[in-house]
Amino acid sequence: MNDIPAAKTLVPSNAMTADIPESLHANFAAEAQRVANKFGAAHTRRVLIVGGAGYIGAPVTEYLLRQGYAVRCLDRLVYNNASTVAGFLSHPDYEFVLGDMGDAAILNKALDDVTDVVILAGLVGDPITKKFPDAAHDVNDVAISTCIDQLADHNLNKVIFVSTCSNYGMIAEDAMADEDFELNPLSLYAKSKVAAERKILGQKGKVDYHPTVLRFATAFGFAPRMRFDLTVNEFTRELQQDKELLVYDGHTWRPYCHVHDFARLIHRVLGFGVGDVSFEVFNAGGDKNNHTKQNIVDLVCERLPGRKVAYKENSDDPRNYKVSFEKVRTRLCFEPAMSVADGIDEILWALENRLLQDVDSRRDFYGNYNLLG
Ligand SMILES: NC(=O)c1ccc[n+]([C@@H]2O[C@H](COP(=O)([O-])OP(=O)(O)OC[C@H]3O[C@@H](n4cnc5c(N)ncnc54)[C@H](O)[C@@H]3O)[C@@H](O)[C@H]2O)c1
How far is CA 52 from CA 23, 28, 138, 367, 372, in A? Predict the structure, then answer.
């Protein structure tokens, strides 16, 4: 008899159940009371996720639905990524709206009866913005600006704007970038993010909602819209397929974070007292997940010995930054549950169990390589 394949859930139990530490229960209860006073005790907390059909949007949707929130997704499906939301459509508290965040009429309609907003939409990453600079400007500068302009006077509670640690660019080898560190965006992508951050943080005193900026580390992990154009996912897939992996600038540091941990953090910000998060910026990740590319290759090769890896220096992407996550750890008691090694194991398991199929023939589906929709 053949061995029965090991069963596995892709959601680690500690990431979901040990969610809110006991020390935060009073803070969450006070915030829930404030929200009940604002909207009425029976009002559903409905979150509009702009860009909710993307790689990070799907785990955030799943997590918030699980926590009892209603979710409305507004997405343009630029990668023909409709299948990402297919599994949510039968959920009674889920709605999908096809549209561009830069279309004020559609956005205003999507904002109807919403309590909070999470902004994830954009052309994401250096390569796609470099390849399509005009489209990147239309989305990451113009549409995002229109979107931010529409948010006032909708009786919203919180608005979470998702930015990136890429804003730190290249920093000294012995430095750790905290939130006050000088921003040094090196790419079109990061420059647009810095401008959008400044715009949303510049609304103080002018708007009736509470914004928070989260500077995300580089994401990894399995999700319904898988992205293999991200370091941990890409290295794992290439080596699992026994291809020779070419690594540029193996010594360079970046922080990484699992998509489910981002979902936990967004939930935490939504639940936290406004005094702790309003007009605040947080680096989103954990110190233990700062790695060099070489570290990541080593972690994959421990699991897949004997694979071929080549190294090259001086690529056209000079980013090199270690990030401090002390503020999110001390102020929001947030520590990622998943390590990079956990993420590699998860992706290997998903590949081996055919949860990620035709990764070569459907390349454009599995990453931000080309604009399709
Ligand atoms: N993935 C990472 O490693 C990472 C790291 C740091 C920050 N972030 C940030 O997290 C957010 C989500 O990233 P992701 O990895 O899920 O990217 P993604 O490309 O998978 O998702 C982006 C989504 O936005 C949608 N979209 C694009 N333009 C739109 C528009 N004009 N109107 C409506 N929808 C539009 C796309 O269709 C897509 O579904 C982005 O803001 C990104 O900058 C991601």
Answer: 31, 25, 19, 16, 17
283 found inside a domain: yes
Residue 86 is predicted with a pLDDT of 95
- What the block records as the tokens of 283 is 């680096």
203 CA to middle of ligand 1, Å? 23
Choose among 78, 22, 18: nearest CA to 54.
Answer: 78
Q: What is the CATH number of the domain that holds 112?
A: 3.40.50.720
Encode pLDDT of 98-147 as tens digits.
999 999 999 999 999 999 999 999 999 999 999 999 999 999 999 999 99
The answer to whether residue 308 is domain-embedded is: no
Whether 303 is covered by a domain: the verdict is no
Cα within 13 Å of Cα(276), Cβ side: 18
CB 110 near ligand 1, within 6 Å: no
DSSP string, 320-361: B--B--HHHHHHH----S--HHHHHHHHHHHHHTTSS--TTT
Tokens standing for residue 364 = 């454009």
Q: Is 116 in the pocket of ligand 1 (CB under 6 A)?
A: no
Helix (H) or strand (E) holding 150: helix 144-150
Residue 185 placed within a domain: yes
Tell me the pTM.
Answer: 0.95
Number of folded domains that form the chain: 1
User: What is the rounded distance in angstroms from the CA atom of residue 69 to the CA atom of residue 160?
Assistant: 15
Residue 9: both structure tokens together: 């859930």
User: What gap in Å lies between CA 366 and CA 373, rounded to an integer?
Assistant: 14
Return the bridge partners of 36, or none.
none
CA of 188 to the centre of ligand 1 (A): 15
Residue-range definition of the domain harbouring residue 60: 16-217+259-288+318-337
Ligand 1 in reach of 55 Cβ (< 6 A): yes
DSSP output for 246-262: EEESTT-EEEEEEHHHH
